[in-house]
Structures are given as C-alpha cells and as structure tokens.
C-alpha cells in the first residue's frame, strides 16, 4: 500500500516523499488507520519493520494545525539510544510539519539536564523519554502532562525486562485526562498482556510474524570451541573485506574490550560500545558507525534494539544470545525493511541447546559449518532436545567403578 492511500495530510505526504518513502510497511499499513481513528492499540512486530514510522506519522498528522504549546504526545522507550533515534525521525519529518520535540534521557552533564528542563517547562509537542530521567523531572513539578492526548510505549517488553514496570505506573499516574494509548512490543509475554489489560481500553491487536527475522537475512553458524572463536572471526572478516558495516554482538560488557583489542591487533579496525561508556562517547561511536568511519562495531545486547543504521551488511553473534528472541533483535539490525544481510553465529558445545531454541523460534534450520582446516576441527553438532538439567553433572569427568578419574593424562 502506498502512503497516499492512508489518508495522511498533504504536508506529511510531501515530507514522506522527500525522505524517499513510497510504500508503507505492513505494520504501518495496519497501524496508521487505527491510530488516526483514535483507538487504543497493542502491536507486536519485529525490529526493523518500520514500527517508529507507524506511530510517528499518524501523531504528526494529528498535530498539523495545533495552536498551543502544551505537550500532546509522550513516547516512553527503554534506552537513550532509542530515544535519540525516534526524536531524530520526528525532526526529519518536522521540516514539513511544524512540531516541536525533545529526547529526555540520562547520562548527560548538567547542561543536558538544563536543556531538558527548559524545554519541558516551556512546553513541547512531543516528549520522547526514558522512564528514569522523566520521573526525575516529574518529581520537581514543572512537567505538565495534563493535556496529553497520546501515550506511546515503545519496546514495551524490553522495558519490563529492564525492571521499569514501577516507573511506568508512576508516569501513567501523572496523566489524568482521557488519552489514546499505544503499545508496541517485539514479543508478547504474559507480563505484556497483563500491562495491556491495565492501561489500554478495548485495544485493537496487531501481530505480525511474532519473533521472526526478516526474510532477507542469510543465516549461518560456525561450530567452534571458545579458544577458536578469535581465529574464526578473523577468517569471516577476511572473506568479507568488501563489507563496510558490521556489528559483532557479545553477551557481556567485559568481552567487548577483549574482542576489540583482538580485532585491532589482527588489523581489523573496530570500536566497542556498551553501557560502560559515558553518553557523549557512545553517541560519538554511533555517529562514526553511521557515517561508515567505523567499519566494525562490537556491542552488547543493550544496543540490539537501540541502534538505527541503514545498510548493515552483517551481524555476527560472537556468543549465542541467552534468549532466542534476543537473536531476532540482534540479527534485525541487518536486512532492514526489505534489504538483504548476513547473520553469522559462533556456536560452542554449551550453546548448542540455545541454537536449537533459536531454530525452533524462527522455524528454520541454520546451516552449520566447521572452521577452516588450518584452525582445526570444531565440535560436532548434537541434536539433543534439552539443556542438561544438572550443570555440574554435565561437566563432571567420567569416573570408573572405584571412583578414580579415568580422563587424567598419565
């Protein structure tokens, strides 16, 4: 469906056309008419499907002709990166549609706080905020949410995972008037259903391919031991010298610097990003990655939903993510909105059960490869169905009937 069929204002259609968009994504096609009808909605759609446009466009459409400076829309997001990303999209469309906005998030200096405070006191059409920082401003009494017409919770499942449920309840308590509530989530666990029942009124439900990666992703896996991972990673990168945008995900912050150090020593210039970096440094690294000055970015899962970079060639999972759904969020950084991309995962023996869960979730078998001959054979793929119940037993060395360790070398 073309945007011209969605009953949007001519000013907004001009902005959409100027930014190079013609056809709405499925989530935009389904969500925009519902939002324009002022109905509550809960939408489940994977990352990279155009969710931000699905709520930003109809909200901006309603703001056309607004006369006062009161806050009309409050968008709550889990991370500062996502807040910045959404606010930048709003600014892009606001060249044609007169609307003011601000991203409110923590981690900055005193000047950042003052800028947020002044904007909130003077009134701004759209606030995009992380829960903790918004509550800090709300407690000081100068934020007026009395005229809120739209409350939007984006990445609601991640906010609950991060423990923001009490903060969300506190923020919602400041909104006294009748308003439209929209909830967007990549997954739909029971906790999200419970929250939806509490804050939504007769919502329309939209579910698009829950937790399925984009069709344009080419999935692969290397079976390797931990001590082989660095060499396998180097092999992968050597074969893809023409790629100019690669993200490597690892499960822990402590590994980010280790991987970056290893890559740089092997001649692959890279930089890492995690919550250990202060806000200014994180934004600097992201700008470098977006502009292609940084070719390889090593990141933790905190970045898997908070980065918006076009034309990422490849996502590499240095570690298999703990949850199968996190795999979808990681690899969703590539092949965005009908593009193509490559997702490659390094799988050690302990993580094979996680890889099986991923295959069950995405309903596809991921092709698996052994490391190159010069690196040595990796583990054989095991088709067991469950993770071992007793971790200690799983690693326990075999003993003979007398209790002696028969695996010891002489």
Categorize the overall geometry.
globular
Provide the CATH topology of the largest domain: Rossmann fold
Radius of gyration: 23 Å
Strand order of the largest sheet: 3-4-2-5-6-1-7
Question: Which sheet architecture does the biggest sheet show?
Answer: 7 strands, parallel
What number of structural domains do the residues give? 2
Rounded mean pLDDT is: 85
Tell me the layout of helices and strands.
Elements: H1 10-18, H2 26-36, E1 41-45, H3 51-63, E2 73-76, H4 80-93, E3 101-104, H5 110-122, E4 126-129, H6 131-138, E5 150-153, H7 156-161, H8 165-173, E6 180-185, H9 190-199, E7 204-208, E8 217-223, H10 229-238, E9 246-249, H11 253-265, E10 270-273, H12 279-290, E11 296-299, E12 314-317, H13 324-331, E13 341-347, H14 352-362, E14 368-369, H15 391-395
Parallel strand pairs: 1-6, 1-7, 2-4, 2-5, 3-4, 5-6, 8-13, 8-14, 9-11, 9-12, 10-11, 12-13
Helix pairs in contact: 2-3, 3-4, 6-8, 13-14
Description:
Helix content is 37%, strand content 16%. It is of the alpha/beta class and 410 residues long. The chain is globular, with a radius of gyration of 23 Å. The termini are far apart.
Summarize the structure.
By secondary structure, the chain is α/β, with parallel strands linked by helices.
What key attributes describe this structure?
410 residues; alpha/beta; Rossmann fold; 2 domains; 7-stranded parallel sheet; 16% strand; globular
């Amino acid at each position: 469906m073309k945007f011209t069929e969605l009953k949007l204002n001519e000013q907004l259609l001009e902005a959409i056309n100027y930014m190079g968009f013609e056809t709405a994504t499925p989530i935009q096609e389904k969500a925009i008419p519902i939002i324009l009808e002022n109905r509550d909605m809960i939408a489940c759609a994977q990352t990279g499907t155009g969710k931000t446009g699905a709520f930003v466009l109809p909200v901006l459409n309603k703001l056309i002709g607004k006369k006062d400076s009161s806050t009309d829309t409050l968008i709550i997001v889990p991370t500062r990166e996502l807040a910045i990303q959404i606010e930048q999209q709003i600014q892009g469309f606001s060249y044609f549609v007169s609307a003011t906005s601000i991203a409110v998030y923590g981690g900055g200096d005193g000047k950042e706080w003052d800028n947020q405070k002044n904007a909130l006191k003077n009134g701004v059409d759209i606030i995009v905020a992380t829960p903790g920082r918004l509550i800090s401003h709300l407690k000081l009494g100068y934020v007026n949410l009395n005229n809120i017409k739209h409350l939007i919770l984006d990445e609601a499942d991640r906010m609950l995972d991060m423990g923001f449920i009490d903060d969300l309840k506190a923020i919602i308590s400041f909104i006294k008037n009748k308003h439209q509530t929209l909830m967007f989530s990549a997954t739909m666990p029971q906790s999200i259903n419970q929250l939806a029942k509490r804050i939504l009124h007769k919502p329309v439900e939209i579910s698009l391919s829950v937790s399925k990666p984009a069709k344009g992703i080419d999935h692969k896996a290397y079976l390797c031991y931990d001590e082989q991972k660095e060499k396998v990673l180097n092999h992968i990168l050597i074969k893809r010298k023409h790629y100019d945008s690669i993200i490597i995900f690892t499960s822990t912050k402590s590994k980010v610097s280790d991987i970056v150090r290893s890559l740089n020593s092997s001649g692959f210039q890279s930089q890492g990003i995690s919550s250990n970096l202060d806000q200014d440094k994180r934004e600097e690294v992201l700008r470098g990655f977006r502009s292609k000055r940084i070719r390889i970015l090593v990141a933790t899962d905190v970045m898997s939903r908070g980065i918006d970079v076009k034309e990422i060639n490849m996502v590499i999972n240095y570690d298999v993510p703990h949850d199968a759904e996190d795999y979808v969020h990681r690899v969703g950084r590539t092949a965005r909105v009908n593009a193509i991309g490559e997702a490659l995962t390094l799988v050690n023996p302990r993580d094979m059960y996680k890889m099986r869960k991923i295959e069950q979730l995405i309903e596809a078998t991921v092709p698996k490869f052994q490391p190159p001959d010069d690196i040595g054979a990796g583990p054989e793929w095991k088709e067991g169905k469950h993770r071992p119940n007793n971790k200690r037993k799983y690693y326990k060395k075999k003993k003979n009937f007398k209790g002696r360790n028969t695996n010891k070398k002489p």
